[in-house]
């Protein structure tokens, strides 16, 4: 096909989609807006710009060059926000290190990413001491020491972050360069083998920011996010750029609140004192917050919470609404930057009961602008949008990772047929809402049929005695697999209900819900803990490996 390419005037500015452009709006419309770390450190967007410039000069003085990788090990902080901008704006690559991995996995990711420089909070010095002698490429280290703390680095460092920052100039001329230049890398929290590295360009991160802004800002009422909101992440900044929302909050000029290490009491206090109105997290983190004694004394009304990473149980959605929380689901994965869809409700749906709304709020949502989201069969044919036809969820959008770092075979598998394969199973209804029913690796194959572990979890979680639940498949000679519910009881119900009684309740509820008849083969086991990944998602691989080890 022959197309006509738009020409340009020789003097016209060829505007590249670079992360630095996200700073233009807040500096123009909200330069005095506040950014705070734990309520202890406060400054405005003008100071943020200066600190970004100082960090760039600090790193340049340590001989950081374009194309090199600067790794970051810190809790959620204003320092991390500065790194989100300064490092890629220099043309370098920001490696956000998952500090909840094991020391051996952290060592692997630093070496695999070929990190040249490391900025590390002194809290992680024990990890650094354990791996320092095996770091292959790190040449220079800058340490972070919290105000009032003292620490001695286990190996030589270039200096302390704030001291070096204060000595650096706030003026830095951030250059233009190709918008397809790599900006970030991080490693997935997979449950098998070594973590896989994914990477994103400036163009991808800017377009993801704009896509999220269009989706959240375009919501007519429920889940509407705007520049007068107060933003606080409760998804780690090392994990998919805190789902990209620090970039969104900055571009929109919101007040931003960074909590450091997640402590339920501190988070409740910050929500109350800083008037936080928009956050995001996985269900287990929200459950941890709302179960803390401080939560009973905290007013959550007006708090918008986007849930992702794991399925949102309908009972949690209903409970949150009754506490005044506008809770709703987003969907994506590390490889997708991550947001692909959001479960917004139309205004007419807001007249329904909390329970009826929860059915929609717990769905995986409708696609963002610029996202081609499909459910396909094994031949890559799209299935009918009737809320029943099931297949694998695949996607295209301008912000999906183009592959895994140094893993060509896995990259080709990820992109088989020209669509990114999520390895999630789901369906789409007539209104365009996607519902993920399971991970391909977690679906339970009983009697030749698929049974959704997520559906069973949602049913069991509605029992008043259930604190947390995970459903896994275990081998069975007759049926191939049978479902087992691993249940943590609420403290007040321990000893008041038996596994047999909860199984009978669940069987009746499963039958009433019309779930696969093989769900009636469910066993129930009371456990003291549930295995989770480093970001709080259920680790069903470990649970399947030794479910008896978890039992009471």
TrEMBL record:
Biological process annotations from GO: fatty acid metabolic process
Domain AMP-binding enzyme C-terminal residues, every copy: 456-537
Listed Pfam families: AMP-binding, AMP-binding_C
Keyword Glycoprotein: no
GO molecular function: ligase activity
Segments forming domain AMP-dependent synthetase/ligase: 33-404
Tagged with keyword Ribosomal protein: no
Key words, A-Z: Fatty acid metabolism, Ligase, Lipid metabolism
InterPro entries attached to this UniProt entry: AMP-bd_C, AMP-bd_C_sf, AMP-dep_synth/lig_dom, ANL_N_sf
Coiled-coil region list: none
UniProt record similarity statement: Belongs to the ATP-dependent AMP-binding enzyme family.
Protein name (database record): Long-chain-fatty-acid--CoA ligase
Annotated organism of origin: Magnetospirillum fulvum MGU-K5
């Amino acid at each position: 096909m022959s197309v006509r390419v738009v020409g340009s005037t020789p003097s016209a500015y060829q505007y590249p989609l670079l992360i630095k452009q996200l700073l233009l709006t807040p500096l123009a419309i909200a330069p005095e807006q506040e950014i705070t770390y734990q309520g202890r450190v406060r400054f405005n967007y003008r100071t943020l710009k200066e600190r970004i410039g100082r960090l760039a000069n600090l790193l340049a003085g340590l001989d950081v060059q374009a194309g090199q990788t600067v790794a970051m090990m810190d809790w959620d902080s204003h320092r991390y926000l500065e790194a989100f901008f300064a490092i890629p704006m220099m043309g370098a690559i920001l490696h956000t290190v998952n500090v909840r991995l094991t020391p051996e996995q952290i060592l692997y990711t630093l070496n695999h990413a070929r990190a040249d420089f490391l900025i590390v909070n002194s809290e992680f010095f024990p990890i650094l001491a354990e791996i320092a002698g095996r770091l292959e490429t790190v040449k220079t280290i800058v340490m972070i020491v919290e105000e009032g703390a003292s620490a001695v680095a286990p190996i030589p460092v270039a200096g302390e972050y704030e001291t070096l920052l204060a000595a650096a100039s706030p003026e830095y001329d951030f250059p233009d360069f190709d918008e397809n230049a790599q900006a970030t890398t991080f490693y997935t929290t997979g449950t098998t083998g070594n973590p896989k590295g994914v990477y994103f360009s400036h163009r991808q991160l800017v377009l993801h920011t704009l896509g999220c802004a269009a989706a959240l800002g375009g919501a007519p009422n429920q889940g509407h996010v705007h520049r007068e909101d107060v933003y606080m992440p409760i998804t780690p900044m090392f994990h998919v750029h805190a789902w990209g929302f620090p970039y969104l909050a900055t571009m929109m000029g919101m007040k931003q609140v960074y909590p450091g290490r997640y402590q339920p009491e501190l988070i409740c206090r910050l929500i109350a004192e800083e008037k936080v109105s928009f956050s995001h997290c996985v269900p287990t983190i929200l459950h941890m917050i709302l179960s803390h004694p401080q939560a009973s004394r905290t007013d959550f009304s007006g708090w918008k919470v986007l849930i992702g990473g794991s399925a949102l149980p309908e009972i949690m959605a209903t409970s949150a609404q009754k506490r005044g929380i506008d809770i709703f689901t987003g969907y994506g994965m590390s490889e997708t930057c991550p947001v692909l869809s959001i479960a917004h409700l139309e205004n007419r749906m807001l007249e329904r009961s909390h329970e009826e709304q929860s059915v929609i709020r717990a769905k995986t949502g409708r696609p963002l602008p610029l996202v081609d989201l499909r459910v396909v069969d094994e031949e890559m044919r799209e299935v009918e949008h009737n809320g029943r036809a099931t297949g694998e969820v695949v996607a295209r959008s301008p912000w999906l990772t183009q592959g895994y770092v140094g893993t060509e075979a896995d990259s080709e598998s990820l992109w088989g047929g020209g669509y990114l394969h999520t390895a999630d199973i789901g369906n789409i209804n007539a209104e365009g809402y996607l519902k993920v029913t399971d991970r391909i690796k977690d679906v339970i194959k009983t009697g030749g049929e698929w049974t959704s572990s997520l559906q069973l979890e949602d049913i069991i979680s509605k029992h008043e005695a259930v604190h947390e639940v995970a459903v896994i498949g275990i081998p069975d000679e007759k049926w191939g697999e049978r479902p087992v519910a691993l249940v943590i009881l609420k403290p007040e119900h321990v000893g008041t209900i038996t596994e047999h009684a909860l199984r009978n309740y669940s069987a009746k509820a499963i039958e009433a819900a019309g779930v696969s008849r093989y769900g009636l083969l469910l066993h129930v086991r009371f456990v003291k803990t549930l295995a989770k990944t480093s970001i709080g998602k259920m680790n069903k691989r470990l649970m399947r490996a030794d479910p008896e080890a978890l039992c009471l």
